Amino acid sequence: MSATLRLIKAYNTLYSYNSTERPYALPNFRNDGTPLNSPIIKRWTFPGQFGLDVAPGPPDSFLIDLNKDDTEAPNADSIRAFVSMPDAGVLENCIGYHWYELMYNIKGANVPAADKFPPYHLIFAYLIEHSRIFVIFERLIMKFKTGEDLGHPSAFTREWIRNTEDLFYKDVHIPQFRSVVTALAPSFDATRRNAYYRLFGLELGHGNQANSPVSFVKPTHANLNFVGLLEHFLREVWQGVINHKNTSGVNTTDVIFISELALQLKDSLLSRRNADKNLEFYESSSLSKEEFLSVIMAEWYYQVIATNTELVKELNAEAVTPYERLAKLGKLVGVTPHSKTHDIFELAPLLAILLRMVEEGKYDTAANIQGLFDPGVPSNTFAQQISLIINLWQKTTGTNLKQMPSAPLQNGAAKNRTIALM
To answer: Is 92 inside any structural domain?
Structure first.
């Protein structure tokens, strides 16, 4: 499930729908004496919508978690209304409520396993940001704020710009949510780059919106072998994919070795989160809030180009795909999106789901590994996607995952490198 869908649901819970019981995640959001049959937060300054539609139907790849069988998605009008709310405080409350709802699920004894851990992963934010979408929109915002080269912004664009600045470019006031922008860490850009480096050993292939390098801390403890380990895992999975269809030749699939690689991936990722290597401590773990807010920010920008929104239309950037819209917007500010952006956008949500399942321990056992390449495994929801992940990774990095290296890799080892999404 996407962050956008969950935040819109949070808005409906807090501001629109009549609630018959207090939300266990945030009981303090209701003032004493407020009738239960009313919105949890009264609109004291915000006229708002009566409710943003969340309808059943097939969402796009950004709006579905294949591990959780979601079949809901907000419609385009709901998304546009949400991101252009005339009160950023409403959005901050929604983010705060959503955070504590996720944390409540982690602690809940009766929460289904599929809903227990946050569905987001930092790799999603890294890949989306690698497209240069952040830089393009930051330049667009500055052009609107400092002149009229792009004309006067529409009401939608004006409110969206204000919300973007309030949410991501200042010390946010999300209730009970420790800010990731402080006097000691004044740059969320640098904070994100530090998080990417720690968890994946990866750097972005561009500077800031002024085209200057961004200085950030490169810690000693960083997963510099992440790319090599992931590629080794995907190569072995591919052997399983092709051997599953092979009825006569030699079967080179080693599900036990694949599970060992999955355990190595899980261990390396969880090691950066907490000393116990346990997702149940997510709330107090390193990188949790950076991951949460980075994913929300990445999807926030993407939603503006997901359809022909008012901003896209007023800048004559209408197109068929998000990549084409981003390219037209980038041309207005002198920034070309990454040449592989179309594939990056498709890869980001799928790889995020895979890595989250790895961290949850889904592939610790050989029995579950079989589900990566056998569509006939009961309750399997991911076999059809793993080949797509492998193909998209090959296209974005230029690395051949369908051919085993001439020299076998030991224990998932590979040369450390910054990913080359060329």
So the answer is: no
